[in-house]
Amino acid sequence: MTILEFMLAPLMACLLLILINVYFGIHVLKREIIFIDIALAQIAAFGTTIAVVIEHIMHEGHAQDHDHSGDSILAYILALSFITISSLVFSFLKNKKISIPLEAIIGISYAFATTAAVIILDKAAGGDVHIHDMLIGSILWVSWAQVLKLLIVVAFVGGIHFVFRKKFTQLSDSYHNNNSKIKNSFLWDFLFYLTFGIVIIEAVNISGILTVFAFLILPAAFSSMFSKSWTTRIIVGFVLGAIVSAFGLYFSWNMDVPVAPLIILMLGVCLVLGALFKRFTKINKV
Amino acid sequence: MIENLIFLGPPIAACVVLAGILSYFGNHILTRGIIFIDIAIAQIAALGTMTGLLFGFAEESFSVQIISYGFTILVISLFAVLKSRKMAISQEAIIGILYCVALGLALLLAEKISGGSNYITKTITGNILWVTWKQVLYTLIVVVAVGAIHISYSKKFIQISENIRDKKGAENKRFLELLFYITFGFVIVKAVFIQGIFLVFILLIAPAAIVRLFTANWKQRFIWSWVIGILGSIIGIYISYEYNVSNGPAIVCLLSTLVFLAAFVKVFLKLFRREPLSKIVNNIKE
Question: What ipTM describes this predicted complex?
Answer without folding.
Answer: 0.82
